[in-house]
Specification:
With 207 residues, this protein is of the alpha/beta class. The protein folds into 2 domains: 58 residues, no CATH class; 139 residues, Rossmann fold. It is 33% helix and 15% strand. The protein is built from 6 helices and 8 strands. The strands form 3 sheets. Strands 7-6-5-8 form a 4-stranded parallel beta sheet, sandwiched between helices. Strands 1-2 form a two-stranded antiparallel sheet. Strand 5, helix 3 and strand 6 form a beta-alpha-beta unit. Helix 2 packs across helix 5. The N terminus is likely disordered.
Amino acid sequence: MIALQSSREPIAEIFEPVFFEVDYRGGPSEDCYDFVVALRGKKYKRSLSKAGFKGRVYHIYPHIDERMHGRVSDVKVKQFCERFGINDDDKIILTVARLDPIKGQDIAVRALARVAKRFPQVKLVLAGNGSFSSTRRGGLGLPKGVRWLDRLERLASKLGVRQRTIFTRYLTEEELKAAYTRADVVVLPSVLEGFGLTVVEGWIYKS
């Protein structure tokens, strides 16, 4: 939350300080705001400073409500596995992220090619559809996601692991819970990440 000085009413606005390094003019001004709450730590604080903000900056940590997560029934896991061709004896590596180069799914595919030589029953599940909106229809960044999906499919084919690589695209909340429940390990191969909530989610599911 960012509080407006003139009215003393709390005004919530969202800034992406990472962009301030390119254009400082879009950042918050001390004349307008009493303080800024940053979600991503010291780097964002420095970016705010570069943007010209000299007010107070507070850092809070991302949070996951464990009550919204939890292992699902065997029936739901079975339905998920049947939909995506996952066998009982398969070892599942799960990555949950929108389809975007910054999320590093290509790193996971390359790693799969090496791991499969030693563990022939391994499969990689890439959950995500390139959308910021978490909806079946998709949202911001979807065209980029489509292009990235095509590159990942071609990479998997080139490395000989296309049949081991499962692209789920959009998943409902229950399907995502089933994916976490079935996974043997959750990986986060991002090249840049603010916090990495999916790692914490994987921990909740003991994956």
